[in-house]
Amino acid sequence: MSDRATFRARLGALDVSPVEEPFRRRMLELLDTTPDCFLRTAYPAHFTGSALVVSADGCRVLLNHHRKLNKWITFGGHCDGDANLLRVAMREAWEESGIAGLEPVSEAPFDLDIHAIPPLKHEPAHEHFDVRYLLLAPEGAEFAVSEESHALAWFTPEELASLELDASMRRLIAKWQTRQRRG
Q1: Where would you tag: which of 23, 65, 121, 173 has the fewest CB atoms within 10 A of its CB?
Q2: Residues 4-56: pLDDT tens digits?
Q3: For the segment 75-115, what is each residue's pLDDT rounded down to a tens digit?
Q4: Mean pLDDT, to the nearest integer, of 140-147?
């Protein structure tokens, strides 16, 4: 099965929240109607892969204070033609955090989101169809700040509560916290 077909099957079988269901429907439609949906030049929308990086003990998450967006977000980026979104999320998390040996908690996406991107330089306004994965950092992982970030930091749930995060990030963090409580 191709990466595209595997992704479509996983997306179709994914158990999603009521908030995520419209995102999934739109993602499936984009897959079915846009052959180049894994390229950043596909407008008005294209796929991106992201990762919420969790510490080895599962008690903290690593966030990126993004240089261009000037806010705390997960690691992620454009697919650049790769239909294996888990591989994209892992590549982006490694490039942006410097942490080698990140391991996926599951091959299935952890969360789905669609967010608007404003026009920037040569790019028109468009949407990122963001597929988010949960990645586990190795014991003793040390990060390195890339040129894409102002800073990186590990946050406990209590520390996350004091950050100014958008609704999408708050939903993602709440989903991780619910998973942690269930064990």
Answers
A1: 121
A2: 999 999 999 999 999 999 999 999 999 999 999 999 999 999 999 999 999 99
A3: 999 999 999 999 999 999 999 999 999 999 999 999 999 99
A4: 91
Domains contained in the chain, CATH given: 3-182 (3.90.79.10)
Query: Which pair of tokens denotes residue 183?
Result: 């064990």
CA of 95: how far to CAs of 79, 98, 139, 144, in Å? 13, 6, 19, 9
Q: Give the 3-state secondary structure of residue 77.
A: strand
Cα 20–18–130 angle (5° rounding)?
5
Q: Report d(CA 154, CA 156) in Å as an integer.
A: 7
Q: Residue 156 CB: number of other CB atoms within 10 A?
A: 11
Contacts of 5 by beta carbon, 8 Å cutoff, 6+ apart: none
Please name the residue that has the structure tokens 């040390």: 142
HSE-CB of 81 using CA atoms within 13 angstroms: 0
Sign of the torsion formed by the C-alpha atoms of 10, 47, 4 and 83 = negative
